[in-house]
Write a structure and sequence with these properties.
4-stranded antiparallel sheet; alpha+beta; single chain
Length: 208
């Protein structure tokens, strides 16, 4: 048995492309209606091209690989690790234009995993950190190996909760232990709002 979690879907990428192009076409139409001078249109076109390139090089790959893509079977856990955003860009367009599926760089033998510790931390993100609800929680999976090494994955939880739950259950059946003092995994697998769950934990901590 094999479970793949966070699999890239071309339909999702095509939809994101459509939204981006619709946004660009809208502003292009608005600008060309109100500004008729050739130099103004040239300057706007240059700025638009720069923005478009930034979106396709930085934003689109980041949105596509929001979560870690991983695969588990009875023997091993494999996942993709992106050290830089450029890696995401190369993987994405290799997948789109060459139909080359991203390969997994990290391969952990399940028999070599001592235990998996699950925790969380609070983070703020710009620029919304200065607005209401401008922060959130990151769930961290720390894989502790029998040889003493550790592998820490922050975006292990997928939006596809069904495949995520199946992957976790398969690892449990294969003997992988999960240390979960805050019952985060139970909340995730039951589709509870994880932010509300952690907020209750924080409230209990403050009360103690």
């Amino acid at each position: 048995m094999k479970v793949t979690v966070g699999k890239i879907k071309k339909r999702k990428i095509i939809l994101l492309n459509f939204v981006i192009l619709l946004f660009v076409a809208y502003w292009l139409g608005v600008f060309f209606i109100f500004y008729r001078q050739p130099y103004e249109r040239i300057m706007f076109s240059i700025v638009l091209i720069i923005i478009l390139l930034s979106i396709y090089i930085l934003v689109l790959p980041g949105l596509t690989f929001t979560n870690t893509m991983w695969e588990v079977d009875e023997n091993s856990l494999k996942y993709i690790y992106f050290d830089k955003n450029l890696d995401k860009t190369k993987f994405l367009y290799s997948f789109l234009f060459r139909n080359k599926y991203p390969r997994y760089q990290i391969n952990l033998k399940l028999s070599q995993i001592d235990f998996v510790q699950i925790s969380y931390y609070r983070y703020s993100f710009y620029p919304s950190r200065y607005l209401i609800d401008g922060s959130g929680y990151k769930i961290v999976f720390k894989f502790n190996m029998l040889d003493g090494s550790q592998y820490i994955i922050e975006n292990f939880v997928s939006h596809d909760r069904d495949s995520f739950n199946k992957g976790i259950e398969l690892m449990k059946k294969c003997g992988v232990r999960f240390i979960d003092p805050y019952h985060l995994l139970k909340a995730l697998c039951s589709n509870k709002d994880i932010n509300q769950h952690i907020a209750l934990i924080e409230k209990e901590k403050n009360h103690d």
